[in-house]
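INTERNAL TRANSFER SHEET
From: sequence group
To: structure group
Subject: TIGR01620 family protein

Please process the attached sequence and return the structure record in the designated field. Keep the field labels unchanged so the import script can parse them.
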Amino acid sequence: MTDPNTTRRERAPRAFEAPPREETTLDLPDEAGSGDGEPAHHLPGRRGLRWGALLASSVTALVAIAVTMSVTQMVEQLFAREDWLGWTALGLAGIAGIAALALIVKEAAALMRLSRIGSIRETAERTLRHDDSAGADETVRALSGLYGHRRDMAWALGRLKRFEGEIIDPADRVRLAERELMGELDAEAGRLIAAAAKRISLLTALTPAAALDLLFVAAQNLTLLRRLAALYGGRPGSLGTLKLARMVVTHLAVTGGVALSDTLIQHVVGRGIAGRLSARIGEGTVNGIMTARIGLAALDLVRPLPFETLEKPRLSAIAARLTRSTGAPQAEAADDGTERRPQDGGGRL
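Return from structure group:
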């Protein structure tokens, strides 16, 4: 039994230190990039046989053999009838063969020019990532060779040449080349894209048949791709334009740019264009914006240098110009289809 006279001793509070907690680290894969600075997001390369290309090559070869045998048989029959008919047919066949060979050489040269622009861009991107001196020299030398024969680029090349003896970091040399050479070309590209988008927007609203719409939009988009490639030095032929169109579609699919965002649709239709004027004009405006999106995607493929110091033309600015052309009030944008950056009195090369 507890003695009631015994007082209860209360213990004073004491502070205890918690034992150190062991931190557990998880080794997760690096999604931003690899250890050497290379981007982690790459398009999957083609493996194995390209069955589509093999089919096209086989069919083309069979058609060429059939045409050759048919022409040979026709020439033999004409020789059997009259000598002069045979010689005439043989001469015409020779002219046709020479013309076909010239077209093949022209298309091959156009494809090589597109590949050359892609190689220059890859070298420039590698130089910007790794600050490679050899890559900077190769990029500037390739750009000088690409634009050396063009009179409209003579002044820009002269300005770039003044810095040859200067001590400049390799990455800054690429930025300097972009600033000196790409400025006027980018402005002209913005005007070409805006003009094509406006043309499609207006003519889609005036064309009565949907089939004519499809033909016209396809033709205008191919023309825009060819003009953009020629502007930056590509000068593609028919096959080169089709290849560029396929590359643009692939680029749009990878970057998620095929679908218009809700914000952009509200930007165009939310002002009451379709309801205030007509659904046809609204459809034409959307077609024009899609054409502008295709043109902007093409810039990532036909421009020999990545956008590093200069502003890329913005889709919102071109959309504003389209809606202004239909009479809808929109925010002011630059006349060349680019958004103006506030001047802060300086900037990097």
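Handover comment: The radius of gyration is 31 Å. Residues 64-324 form one domain.
Transfer complete.
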